[in-house]
Amino acid sequence: MAQPATWDHPEPLAVESAPVPEYGSGSLADLLPTLAAGMGVPGTTAAIPELTPADRNCVFLIDGLGWEQIKDHADEAPYLHALLGISRGGTGRPLTAGYPATTATSLASVGTGLPPGAHGLPGYTVRNPATGELMNQLRWQPWTKPHAWQPYPTIFQLAQDAGVHAAQVSSPTFQNTPLTKVALSGGTFHGRLTGEERMDLAAEQLAAGDRSLVYTYYAELDGAGHRYGIASDTWRGQLMYVDRLVQRLADQLPPRSALYVTADHGMIDVPFDEEHRIDFDADWELRAGVALLGGEGRARHVYAVRGAENDVLTCWREVLGEQFWVASRDEAIAAGWFGPHVDDRVHDRLGDVIAAARDDVLIIASEREPKESAMVGNHGSMTPAEQFVPLLEVRS
Fold it and tell me: What is the largest CA-CA distance in the chain?
């Protein structure tokens, strides 16, 4: 008699198997507190032990410039690639962005020196518990009071209060945005349109104080990746330009300065087919019991209809659990995805179910998120390509 066939169905990914960011010792949130502590700023702690203090510190954050992308593109970024071996204080190691690996979250982590569970910008879009609406934390829509949403002082504010010359040099577009106010305010903001102007002015601002903390930013590499992908000529051209910008700034550093080149996240290209792009709007199983879909394709916050939380968790695990780490809110908090502690005001901003991609897949929403669903390059989750960001160092 023939034996019955065995159904070999893999178990869902264990929540505890997700590679949690290095909060407290090697994440983006630890960078500015470490630099500020080295300049004697009260209320800050040197959390990254590999870094040596400097009187003048400049952080150049390049949106979308992941560690693995530098490693894989030595021809386009020879200057950056040559610095990989001395990243993170000579250890040759990257930092981790924090979860989710997305711009609004990471910029808030950088500027406040706090992990997402404390600063409260834990995703691209999250539910505002006061209104029940999804809030886009990058575009700040719908508008809400910035300092009620993120009440902590920035490291720039603490530095300025301690007599350090603090400055941000970025596109004029960002000067008065709510995200800048809650994440990067303090000191003076200097708007410059071109990358070259920003590099030159950042060097001038570094020299403007005996102790200086300067931040500068470049966004277009990330835009090229989203639109065309990191395999595109457009993205590679942007990387070549970024490489020249970094060298331009490094060549102008005043005495007693340290330049740190980092990023808010890396990026991966995701193929355009049903296997790699799972459409929430066309999948009745995933939609069942879901009131709101937040986050982004590789880092979803799922808000259930009241009473359906367990059913939604079970369904999402059954459908996606071999490709995504799927956790309940409490499981994700206990695992430390958002940091060692989640503030009470942040708790209900997190999804009832949280899904973080392990494989090269997305949960798109073709009807409610048409622009995001059409992006080639994506990020958000805890894989090395998204999480690992450089901490390249040049000293004068």
Answer: 87
> Beta 388-389 vs 125-127: how paired, if at all?
unpaired
- Cβ(219)–Cβ(171) under 8 Å? yes
All residues at 6 or more sequence positions from 360 whose CB lies less than 8 Å from its CB, including other chains = 268, 270, 271, 276
Strand bridging mode 134-136 / 125-127: antiparallel
Kindly provide the b/e burial profile for residues 176-190, where b requires at least 16 CB atoms within 10 angstroms of the residue's own CB: eebbbbbbbbbbebb
Rounded-to-integer distance, Cα 265 and Cα 371, Å? 20
pTM equals 0.96
Tally of CA atoms within 13 A in the half-sphere of 42 that contains its CB: 3
* Contact status, residue 138 vs residue 307, Cβ threshold 8 Å: no
| Tens digit of pLDDT at every position of the chain (396 positions) | 444 444 455 689 999 999 999 999 999 999 999 999 999 999 999 999 999 999 999 999 999 999 999 999 999 999 999 999 999 999 999 999 999 999 999 999 999 999 999 999 999 999 999 999 999 999 999 999 999 999 999 999 999 999 999 999 999 999 999 999 999 999 999 999 999 999 999 999 999 999 999 999 999 999 999 999 999 999 999 999 999 999 999 999 999 999 999 999 999 999 999 999 999 999 999 999 999 999 999 999 999 999 999 999 999 999 999 999 999 999 999 999 999 999 999 999 999 999 999 999 999 999 999 999 999 999 999 999 999 999 999 999
